[in-house]
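A.,

Following up on our hallway conversation. Structure tokens first:
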């Protein structure tokens, strides 16, 4: 049976389990350090299955044994951002958590593909890959789908057009330096910059960059979880069904976009083995310069890791 384990059954992890169960993709294990909480959430979700008519086994545990035989491991364990706190403030605390989660899950699922969510995202992907000695195909960070979805939502609100017609691509590091590629984005094939004024587009780009912080400020405690966890379900589906969907993800680059030894948001094709291919856009000088400065930020953060 296909199985997905989620490490960290907090807001993002538990909501990911919800989206995944709705898709009836795989059995689900939820693991967290808080006693009783993953068990309680898993049982509650399991009891929803008869109502929505999905046959999914869901188990909650404080023990990594529950992850035995997983095809995909999702790591959302960590401390969320507090208002005013940058993603990078969390660096070494979350690195220790991701390290342990990777080591423990690999013992039970040596062939699993890892989807990482814990922030600071690009550096946490690096921790998982290095700790596990994993090939780059098996470590994929979730960030770009979320950032692009935020941009799509803002464009949809601006134009009153279905979200389905809107394609936006946000690349780069998952931080304030992310790079919304307006030239590659479009509304039903019409270039985005032809659909609205330069001022409105600039405002949408700015709101996209600050999208995570906007939610943190509103919630007062915790960070966004519905959209990040929906993105997990989309990635897991493409992997398990070998759909070869192309979505922006954090991928370990080996020369693509002129970058090496860095996890960075790029369009990636996802299939049954994880990463199938990095898609390289032709960028102009300004786009390349923006990506390079975002990469410099990610490199700086990752260099501060105490691995
Ligand atoms: N092992 C397992 N679970 C852990 C560990 C650990 N070592 N340390 C913490 N956790 C659990 C917490 O008990 C908590 O239930 O991780 C969960 C995190 O959940 P939330 O605090 O609700 O945070 P959430 O909003 O889900 O965000 C989790 O994802 O998007 C990122 O920035 C976000 O890094 C954060 C992560």
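Then the amino acids I'd put at each of the 307 positions:
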């Amino acid at each position: 049976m296909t199985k997905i384990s989620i490490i960290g059954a907090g807001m993002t992890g538990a909501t990911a389990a919800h989206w995944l169960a709705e898709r009836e993709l795989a059995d689900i294990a939820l693991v967290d350090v808080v006693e009783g909480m993953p068990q309680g959430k898993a049982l509650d979700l399991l009891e929803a299955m008869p109502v929505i008519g999905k046959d999914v086994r869901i188990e909650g545990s404080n023990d990594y044994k529950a992850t035995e035989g997983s095809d995909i491991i999702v790591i959302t364990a960590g401390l969320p951002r507090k208002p005013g706190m940058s993603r990078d403030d969390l660096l070494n605390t979350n690195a220790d958590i991701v390290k342990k989660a990777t080591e423990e899950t690999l013992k039970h699922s040596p062939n699993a593909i890892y989807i990482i969510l814990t922030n600071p995202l690009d550096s946490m992907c690096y921790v998982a890959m290095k700790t596990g000695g994993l090939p780059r195909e098996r470590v994929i960070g979730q960030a770009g789908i979320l950032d692009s979805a935020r941009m799509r939502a803002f464009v949809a609100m601006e134009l009153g057009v279905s979200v389905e017609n809107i394609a936006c691509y946000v690349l780069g590091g998952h931080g304030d330096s992310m790079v919304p590629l307006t030239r590659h984005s479009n509304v039903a094939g019409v270039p985005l910059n032809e659909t609205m004024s330069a001022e409105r587009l600039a405002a949408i780009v700015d709101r996209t960059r600050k999208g995570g912080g906007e939610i943190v400020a509103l919630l007062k405690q915790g960070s966004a979880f519905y959209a990040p966890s929906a993105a997990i379900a989309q990635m897991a589906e493409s992997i398990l069904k070998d759909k070869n969907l192309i979505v922006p993800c954090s991928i370990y680059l080996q020369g693509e976009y002129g970058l090496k030894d860095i996890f960075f948001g790029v369009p990636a094709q996802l299939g049954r083995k994880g990463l199938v291919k990095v898609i390289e856009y032709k960028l102009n000088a300004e786009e390349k310069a923006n990506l390079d400065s975002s990469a410099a930020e990610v490199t700086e953060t990752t260099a501060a890791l105490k691995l």
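The longest strand covers residues 260-271. Curious whether your intuition agrees with the design.

B.
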